[in-house]
Structure formats: C-alpha cells, structure tokens
Amino acid sequence: MAMSFSSLQFPTISIPCRKYKFLHIPPFHRQSSKSKSSFHLCHRPFSSHSSTIFRCQAQKQQEYQVERLFSNLNQATLKREPGSLSSAIFLVAGTTVGAGILAIPAVTEESGFLASAVACIVCWIFMVVTGLLIAEVNVNTMCELGSGGVSLVSMARRTLGTVGVQIACWTYIFIHYALLVAYVARSSEILTNFLGIPLWESAALFSLVFGGICYFGSQRFIGGVNGVLVLGIIISFTALVAVASGGLQLDALLKANFEAVPMSIPIIALSFVYQNVVPVLCTNLEGNISKVRAAIVLGTAIPLGLFLVWNGVILGSIPNSEMADKMIDPLQQLKSTNGVVGPIVEVFSLLAIATSYIGFILGLADFLADLLKLPANQSSPLPYILTLFPPLVLALLDPEIFFKALDFAGTYGVLVLFGIFPAAMAWSDRYSSSSSTVKLPQLVPGGRITLSLVMGGAGYIILSELRQNFGLS
C-alpha cells in the first residue's frame, strides 16, 4: 500500500542541525511500541510560534524548544492517536487505588489520624517525586534511543549499567508478581462469596477477564474501563463513608503519636505505588512531559484524598477502648456493627483491586516484552502469559497469601525500586559524563540535594524495618 508522508503531520524538534547530535541516530520512520507508535524527528529553525512545546538542553547547556517526541499511529487507519490526558489520569489513579487502602487504617491506628495524615501527605510527595524522576529518565532514554516503549530495564541499563539492570529486573519482577498474587487471591475470595463458584474458577475468571482487556483493548478502551472502575470506586467509597461516618467522633481525630509513624510507612508507600505504569504513560502521551507531569500529580492526588477521608472516617468511628486492641481489623469492626457495610466493602475492595491489577498487568507485560527483546511492532501474547499465569498458580496454592505478599513487597521491594532507584537513575542521567548531551528539562527541582534526600529517606526506612524484623532495635 502506498503511503504519502505529506499527508501526515509529524512532530518536530527545533534544534539547529549543526548543534544537534544523537548518540543513536533515530530512523526516519520507526515502529516503536505495542500501542502502535511511530517515532520521527525532523529539524527546523526555531520558531517562537510553535504550539505545545517544551525545552530541550543540548551541548554547552543551550536550551531549545521541542514538541512531542513521536506520534502514536493507528495501524489500520495510519492516523495519529494522541494520548488522552484524562485516560492517563485514570490509569494512574486506578493503579494507585489498590488493596493497600484497605490496610491503611489497621497500620495507622496506633499513630492516630493527625500523625498518619502527615505521613500520607509526605509519602504522596515522595512518590510523586520518584514518579517524575522515572518519567524524566524515561523520556531522555527515548530521546537517546530513538524509540518509544522504553521500560525500566532500558532505563537502568543506560544509567546504572549491568549491576543496576540485574537489581532492577529482579526487584521489579518480585514486586509485580507478589502484588499480582495478592490481588488474585483476594479477588477470587470476593468473587467466590458473590457467585458461589469454586475458588479456582473465580481466580481464573478474574485473571482472564482483566488480562483480556489489557491484551486486546486499545489505549482508549483500557482508559475507559479504568474510568468506569474509578467511578465505581468513588461511588462505593462514598457509600462506605456515609455509612461509617454515622458514629464519627471528632475527638478521636486529634490523636497523634508520631513515634508510631515509621511502622506504617511501608504499607502507606505501597498504597501509593503507580510508578510501574509511568513508562507506559510516557509512550501513550508521546513523550509530552507537561501531560506526563499533570497525569502523575492529578492521578495520585485523587487517591490521596480518598486515603485521608477513608482513614479519618475509620479511625474516628472506632471507640478508644477498641483502638487499644492492636489486633483489631477496622473493616471487620464495621461489618460487625452494620450489616449494610459488608457488601459495600466487598464491592469497593474488588473495584480497587481490579484497577491496580490492570495497571500492574500493563507495567509487567511491557517490562517483560522489553526484557525478552520482542519486536516492538508486534503484539505478542507471551508477555501476558508470563504475567498472568504464575500469579494465578501461586494464589491458588496459598489462598491466605494476600497480607503476607503485601507486607513483604511494601517493606523492601517498593522502597528499593520506586524509592532509591529513580533517584539513582536520575543522578546518573543528569550528572554522568557519559550520558547524552541532549536532555529535556528536569521534572524535579533541587538537584543533588533532592536526589540525596530521596535515597536517604528510603534507605532509612528500609534499615529501620530490617533492625525491627531482626530484633536489633
């Protein structure tokens, strides 16, 4: 089929040819990802009238204006399919609002609402910063390699070398499989209670339905599904808050025990995990850093609001005498006091798990495709089989693995991969002499001080947990 490039509008990068240099020269027209992307760069004199532009730094710290890095093309129509910002926000919000929200009241009841609210806000800022650092390195890597669909493997290889790749690979795979196992185990339990079918059928049904959506669905379809699920979460969440707030005691919200806050940090940090979909986000939004920044900030702000309201309602509605019991399960307490709460909690839990499940499937499948070096322009089922099958088997072997998987993944995996690693990659990307001379502006200000604080904070929590677990404190 003949194709006229004159009928297509390609993005431009406004850097004079004599001052522009790629370490890897991008091809004129290259297929770049499963989402049917085309990567193209062309040079032109700088124009102050360019629309939707952002700065790019080249040799000698000179700044230039660039538009999006590439265009997503539909293979059938050869028309551009620009990434939807609303779909990106829903993807981030849906991935963030997972099963972790159900555990937050239980791990923060000792610290109290005020202290836990401060911890939630600090963790939110921390996770937004690390997500933006991943996006910064991801877009710079796409710029250098001349390709979209860049996963954490390529980012780690480019910035941290072979050792960094090995640590990133195994930590990434461990976190995703641990959380996918937890999600399948909990969702199959809920579906079994609702449908009255065997546990293995519930687990298989959940995995096949949402795995099929991720494999066969387009970007817009998946974004629409996430939007519907997030809407369902908001509705069921509102119903839960309305029912639970009947016994709200305002005095109980004033409790603050900051000494107990560090114990809750791993679960709170786990509840804000979304960074696994940032590479997918950058590709879907065509490397447009302003859209990526907005999607990350707004997409995580929604869960932050949900977490704060949910935690306040739960901690403020449990009597102080019962709060003294450290083994109390706030959700079980709600179910025992009001029979209406049980079904609402189950619906809310299933929807929250489903949104996170979609995000983790997309993130791990994209990661495995890059790790296996599969052709970027082919939609291979192998990454999805490797993503869906092992968690399904493990969840069926140990149906009680839900909380164990959440705790271990949050304590060690998340703070390493989505705490220390983003700052380390950004440090190498920004300050290494071997990195590319063409870079986008930094998404996180503060330079080395900010990066040091990020790595130091994550390392401190990890060491504290290790000391506590081994009885060294």
Automatic annotation (TrEMBL):
The chain crosses the membrane at residues 88-107, 113-139, 160-185, 197-216, 228-248, 294-318, 347-369, 381-397, 409-428, 440-463. Keywords: Cell inner membrane, Cell membrane, Membrane, Transmembrane, Transmembrane helix, Transport. It is found in: Cell inner membrane. GO terms for biological process: amino acid transmembrane transport. It is a multi-pass membrane protein. Its main location: membrane. The keyword Transmembrane applies. GO terms for cellular component: chloroplast inner membrane; plasma membrane. This is Tyrosine-specific transport protein.
